[in-house]
Structures are given as C-alpha cells and as structure tokens.
Amino acid sequence: MTEEIRTLYRISYQLRQKAVEMVYHAKTGHIAPGFSMAEIIAALYFSLLRLNPDEPRWADRDRFVLSKGHACPLYYAALAKRGYFPEADLMEYRMLNSKLPGHPDMRKCPGVDMTTGSLGNGIACALGMALIGRKDRRAHYVYALAGDGELQEGIAWEAALYAGNAGLDHLILIVDRNRLQSGGSVSEIQELGDLAEKFRLNRWDTQTIDGHDIPAVLAAVETAKRRAGAPSVIIADTVKGKGVSFMENQYLWHMKAPSDQEYAQAMAELESAVKRYA
Question: For residue 199, what is the domain's CATH number?
Fold first, then answer.
C-alpha cells in the first residue's frame, strides 16, 4: 500500500469520527449514510477533484453534487478538512442560522456547489451543470454522488435518459449502493433490478466496483474521464454504517444520534482504524 493510499484511508476514518461527533453534539442527523461513502469522498476531495478552497467559486473547478444530501455530516467534515472553513465550525451542524444545515445549502456553506435534499434532484442538477459546462466550452468535470434508494425517483431516470442521449462525457455519477434506505432494504421497498444494464441502455459507460476500495475508486474515476461521447456511472457497492460494528447494515441508523455509550464505542472503533493507517 502506497503512502498516498494509506493517507486516504486514514482520512476516510477521520471524516467518520467528525461525523459521529457532529451528530452526537447536535443530537440529530445522519451518520450511516455518510459512512458508506467515506472512502469515495476521501478519494474525491483529497486526490481527484480539481478545486481551490481559497476561491470556492473558481470558474474552472470541478463541480460536485451530493445528491444524497442528508449524508452531509461527513461531507461537511471533508470540506472543513480540505480548508473551506475551520473544523471548529463543524459543531454548528444543524444549529439555528448555521451554515451547516441538515442538508447542504450552496447559499450558506463554502464549497457546496448545489443545494440538495429532495432525493433524485441532485442527478438532474448535475446534468444541467454539465450541459452548461459544455456550452461554455469548459474542461471541468461534474461529479454527482447518489444513493441507490433515490434511484427509485423518476427524475433520476429522466436525467439519465437525457444525459445519455446528449453524450455528456464530462458527467460522472457515482452510485453509493449500500442497499438500504430509511425504511428498510431497497429491494423490499422498490426493487431496482440490474442497475448497470439500466444505465447501459440509457447510453452510459458503466463500471461496478467495491466502494470501500480506494485504489478501485481512483482507477474507476480515471477510466471514466478517458471515456469519450458518453456520461459515466460508477456503481459502488458499499456497506451502510461502514466502520462502526453496531451500525453496519442496520437501516435504523439511517437517522439516529448515538447515546453516550454508543458514542464512546463508535469513537473507539474509529480511532483504532485511524491508527491502523497511521
């Protein structure tokens, strides 16, 4: 394992620690949906994305849309660690008039490219951003990260159809396929079938990876960027609540604040993982 990869894994667990701390402090929020995307966010924000925290609205930056906006505690932790605002501000999560509300708001939080919350809409927003980028002859990429549960929304497939027909090769969608949503398993609530085939039929270039394997995430994004004439989707198989034993694959942790005992155990498990990659 290279030092870069070790560092990215360490960051992914540090982001998890901050997310737990934020939700514990706020006594409300989403932990498990962020944990399934931690390695993806670490790879994007600390290796892949072209950005400048000192100039959040830099015209040539890559754009990122967190379509599963409820998973924002870990996203905010990444923005803070990347330098968009002080990490001390993370304890303002969900406070009245905070720049860190329960879903990302581009009018309030530095580094947030799109306000999200209504599931499925983030994919359509990313489509629009990619269209504008092509019209303006920009070289940047637009990334969207969506949950598999939100692919039950019709707007997601309207956007997928349009993007495929338009050949938007600077649009990269990552699906965090943890197979759980707030009310239970995705398959029980609304079976999605063969996702890869659905996207291929809509003219997308398609890859399927282990979403907790950082080298696989890095390689998949680089492959997507080499594809010409089609948008790309990376279906990342993940574990909801990954990193904390009692949260893993438990849909009831979709939105739940830990008790004092649960907080202590979660932080201890995550600290052990951070030290493993030190």
Answer: 3.40.50.970
